[in-house]
Amino acid sequence: MANVAGTLMRRCVQLPAVARLSTSACLRGGGGLDTVIERHGNRFVVGYGFNGEPNYIDRVDFPIPAVRFKEDSPQISVIREKERGDWKKLTAEEVKELYRASFCQSFSEMNAPTGEWKMIAGAALLACSLSVWIYLGMKVFVYDTLPDTITNPAKMEAQVQRMIDLRVNPVEGLGSQWDYEKGEWKN
Which architecture does CATH list for 44-112? Predict the structure, then answer.
């Protein structure tokens, strides 16, 4: 156990100062600056990120990704140097170029409708249609015909009369609707 703790401590000491503050980087045994450069190239790490990992993701609820969207090109580097001075000297195109170098989408682009509801509605209607076809197939090919006691009106009347004679369900059921003294249905 002491050997494992010593190895972790050595790895944490070898990390850059910013990565040493993260306990998860120490527990993973690395994840320092060399890993960030390997995964992200020339993109600048600007913050902690959504989950502590240096990755880019557009999210409305967490609007600041950990790394910039694009790598710094010579043209962007010139605009970034100009940005350090007075911002009023920047043109609208340069501001847009700086924004697009840092972010892939704006908030209005993230919130724009995608039309995904059409696919969901189509799938739901397809499932409903399929279930109706399965029901009809079962009714035609699997189920037997209905018994004569349900389809023959004379037998249904005889069955109801027998229930009345036996006084079935006299409180709330069929017997409660029959007047036994007059021998007719109650109004």
Answer: Orthogonal Bundle (1.10)
